[in-house]
Amino acid sequence: MSFRAPSHLTNPLRRFARRLVEAGTPEVAAPLPLPESLAGEPWFSVGKAVEGLGGERVDGWCLEEWPGLALRARFSACWRDPQGRLWNVLPGGGAIAFLPDPKRRYEGVPLPEQFHALERDELLEDYLWLCRELARNPLDDEQREVREGMRQRLESWLELGGRGDKPCPCNSGKRYRGCCSKRVREN
Question: Is a pLDDT exceeding 70 seen at residue 128?
Answer without folding.
Answer: yes
